[in-house]
Amino acid sequence: MRNDHVFHVMRNEWAKTSKTKTQLLLLLLTPFLTVMFISWGLDYVISQTSTYQATVYVENEEQYHTADIVLKDYPNFSKAIGGDPLTEVKEGRIDCAVVVSQETIVLYYDSEILSSAQCLKDAADLADALCFAFEGEDIYYEVMEYYPERNMIDLSSKEDILESFLDRMTGLIGMLIFLTMASNALSLSANSVTGEKERHTFDTLVLCPASLRKILLGKTLVLMLEIFLSGLVGVLTSILAFRIWNPDQFRTICDLAGKDLSWLPLMILLLLSATLVTTAIFMTIASAFTQTKKASLFSSAGMVLISISSMIPTFTKNEAVKFFPVANWSIAIKSICRGQGDLMAIGTAFLISVLIFALGILLSSVLWERTNE
Question: Nearest CA to 238 among 302, 315, 311, 180?
Fold first, then answer.
């Protein structure tokens, strides 16, 4: 049969997706909303570990003004006269309360909700300084002269800081992108392949001039296009979110890799590799069943496989990981961001994904014909 039969099937399959506006909207909107929200949430959590809010509670106006001598060096601490520090801490409105009385200075915090360990260190230093300040301003400055000067020097380079940040970002965001791709692949493959038998429309396919294998190939290519679009939206959204929530790191990446556009084809190769593998897995599962419920049940295992594969670099530092599709995602992204994209590793992973895709097509065609005999 001529190849135009395959294109005819592809046009029909794409028409089914585009005809249902809600399905097409969800296909593109799901990865956008998921990646954008999680990127914001992750950035919020990271920011909370480095910032905090705390309050010094004093008993009278004299202590209130004396505290100013010390608090100028502790910008995260506010001050108040009286109040209910225990309630403020328990309800999470502040991370720590430094309560001054006539005889003691007490630190209150809740370890279950404390977001920054730096808060406790600063509170302890602040309490010591307050003790001297309340004895008198002259005594405070005299004691401070004998205190050794404390400086915190971060020896890591901008690239080191960026690497640590990307370790946190690429693993989770990459897994989310793959999960949205797999989720769309699950519903689309079950509807397009398994659904033909369940909707009793398979008989009309038999009457088509194209062979069942070419029909399956047409369905597979459209599914691959839809999964690729889903992943592309996820990738573009992650770049946009990165630009919005982390402008400093984004500028660093632009300085390292942004001037060389070689990262663009490498990103496309990475996404194509993931698309080919995802398509192969879910088309094989969908072709093996005649009921969408069973296909969806076993497709859950495919989603688990995809998500675990994307997290493999978290569990091992083996260099071989960079040569395998999906698993190489975080490693390749970090190398691209450093301006050191490994074309050989990414190209090898792409060739492996092509082989997996070809094997999936052959297996799917056998299962497709067997389940439809």
Answer: 180
pTM: 0.72
Phi, psi dihedrals of residue 219, rounded to the nearest 5°: -65, -40
Q: Could you read off the pLDDT of 224-269 as tens digits, one per residue? A: 888 999 999 999 998 898 888 878 778 877 777 666 677 888 889 9
Q: Are 292 and 194 in contact (CB under 8 A)?
A: yes
Q: From 87, 122, 146, give the residue that closes a domain.
A: 146
Res 272: pLDDT: 95
Token pair, residue 28, equals: 């593109």
Please give the tally of structural domains in the chain.
2
Joined together, the tokens standing for residue 123 give: 């509170």
Nearest to 175 by CA among 25, 348, 345, 39: 39
Q: What is the pLDDT of residues 158-198, one digit of tens each?
A: 666 666 667 767 778 888 889 889 888 888 887 777 776 67
For 246, phi and psi rounded to 5 degrees? -130, 65
Return the CATH number at 81.
3.40.190
The separation between CA 338 and the C-alpha centre of its own chain, rounded to angstroms, equals 19
Question: 247 near 295, Cβ under 8 Å?
Answer: no
Rounded to an integer, what distance in angstroms lies between the CA atom of residue 70 and that of residue 293? 67
Is 152 inside any structural domain? no
Sheet holding 96-100, edge to edge: 77-81, 54-58, 96-100, 105-109
Write the single-letter amino acid at 274: A
CB distance 116 to 49 below 8 Å: yes
Single-letter residue type at 339: G
Whole-number Å distance between alpha carbons of 171 and 208: 45
Q: Is residue 267 part of a domain?
A: yes
Tokens linked to 106: 């007490």
Tell me the C-alpha distance between 353 and 212, whole Å: 24
Alpha-helix runs per DSSP H in the chain? 4-19, 21-48, 61-71, 85-90, 117-135, 137-146, 158-189, 195-198, 202-206, 212-245, 247-253, 263-287, 292-310, 312-315, 329-337, 343-371
Question: Residue 61's domain spans which residues?
Answer: 54-146
